[in-house]
Amino acid sequence: MHPTVQAALFAVLLLIIVAGCRTGSVLDIRDAGVPSAAGHTVTMDDVAKGIMSAGSKHGWTMAIQTQGHIVGTLVLRRHTAVVDIFYSTNSYSILYKDSSNLNYDPTRKTIHSNYTSWIKNLHDAIQKELGSAVKPN
Length: 137
Hints:
By secondary structure, the chain is an alpha+beta fold. About 40% of the residues lie in helices and about 35% in strands. The chain has one domain: TATA-Binding Protein (2-Layer Sandwich), CATH 3.30.310. The chain contains 3 helices and 7 strands; from the N terminus they run αββαβββββα. A 5-stranded antiparallel sheet has the order 2-6-5-4-3, with helices on one face. A two-stranded antiparallel sheet has the order 1-7. β3 and β4 form a beta hairpin. α2 crosses α3. The protein is elongated.
């Protein structure tokens, strides 16, 4: 095969590979407010239960490390995402911890775009779970 044809095929192959890798910036949720209702005191236990419940409803395995720290792991097919969730009675943060098969680039802080969707879904589920937990009866 002629070297010019080889170079052109290589360029096309490289373009296909790059186009197939959808990446974006790593999404960290920092200091999201814990919903509260007038006259209802939110405890650390309330927040932990809400986070654990929200995560498990969306396929995450949640493990309490210490009070104020949960590690969430999501395994989908060959992909794994691991996050640290730090929480108090006022706020929580969901921070990237580790991953496999998600094209994480620590220098550029990029990762497969599905990761962003998973974190947004987890955050929305936590907000919903905590919001329903603090509504007065």
